[in-house]
TrEMBL record:
Organism (species): Amphibacillus xylanus (strain ATCC 51415 / DSM 6626 / JCM 7361 / LMG 17667 / NBRC 15112 / Ep01)
Name used for this protein in its record: Putative oxidoreductase
Record has Aminoacyl-tRNA synthetase as a keyword: no
Keywords: Oxidoreductase
Alphabetical list of InterPro entries matching this protein: KR_dom, NAD(P)-bd_dom_sf, Sc_DH/Rdtase_CS, SDR_fam
Gene Ontology cellular-component annotations: membrane
Domain Ketoreductase, first and last residues per copy: 7-192
Family stated for the protein in its record: Belongs to the short-chain dehydrogenases/reductases (SDR) family.
Gene Ontology molecular functions: oxidoreductase activity
Length: 263
């Protein structure tokens, strides 16, 4: 087990799924945690859980990152409250599975705000700190859908594809020997994400045997924390599929149309 004593790590979307798994595991590794989530009640419950057995250092900030003003305000408050930030894991994200012409404007705006613009805003605020201290790690959680779009995920895929492109450019601009930038591209994970993305539960049932667990993902992320790693792509076979799709898109889309349409 790695020891992150004296490392201050921000996690967004911290109260459930991957964010909660990251918070729990990193707390056990003595990290100093700054947790952001929309629900103040859930944040306080998580705070109590993490600090109940020992004097862990945990700070919680309730903010709705789908609101651009609230997003900017919470990150500005964090840098005013804490003299050093070592890493940010931009985990918060949402998806709505719907055909392109039926997707509601509000859902489109929320997906782009949370999946892309909130991350861009956080990095605008945090990157000068990382550069000044010549150390840090930015981890942006994107999606395999950002590399290979499928039916009923046009807007979600577009937001994640934009995040991948943004992170790639950011890496070229800013990565140094001690400032690392990593993209995490995921297939389906057993989280509350699907309560909104797939309220009928049909897609979840069809892909249940392929789903990653939050702990699977959290452990992979923690393994590369404060190390140079361009991308994490999970599961491996989906990552391999995106490479084949890149080379032979028409063929793959014809062969796997039924699988792509499971939503």
């Amino acid at each position: 087990m790695r020891d992150f004593t004296d490392k201050t790590i921000i996690i967004t979307g911290a109260t459930s799924g991957i964010g909660r798994a990251l918070a729990t595991n990193l707390s056990e590794m003595n990290a100093r945690l700054i947790l952001i989530s929309r629900s103040e009640k859930k944040l306080n419950q998580l705070y109590d859980q993490l600090t109940s057995k020992s004097a862990k250092t945990v700070y919680v900030y309730a903010a709705d990152l789908t609101n651009s003003h609230a997003c900017k305000a919470v990150f500005e408050k964090i840098i005013n409250d804490h003299h050093k930030i070592d890493a940010v894991i931009n985990n918060a994200g949402i998806g709505v599975f719907e055909y392109a012409h039926l997707t509601q404007t509000e859902d489109m705006l929320h997906m782009f705000q949370l999946n892309l613009f909130s991350i861009v805003e956080s990095i605008k605020i945090l990157l000068p700190i990382f550069k000044k201290q010549s150390f840090g790690h930015i981890i942006n959680i994107a999606s395999i859908a950002g590399k290979m779009a499928t039916p009923k995920a046009s807007i979600y895929s577009a937001s994640k594809s934009a995040l991948i492109a943004y992170t790639n450019a950011l890496r070229l601009e800013s990565e140094t020997d001690r400032l690392f930038i990593t993209t995490v591209n995921l297939g389906p994970v057993k989280t509350n994400f699907f309560k909104r993305a797939d309220p009928s539960g049909s897609y979840q049932k069809q892909v249940a045997r392929y789903m990653l667990t939050p702990d699977d993902v959290a452990n992979k992320i923690i393994k590369v924390l404060f190390k140079r790693k361009r991308e994490i792509n999970l599961p491996w076979w989906m990552a391999f599929g995106t490479k084949i799709h890149y080379l032979f898109p028409t063929l793959i889309e014809r062969l796997f149309r039924s699988q792509f349409s499971k939503k």
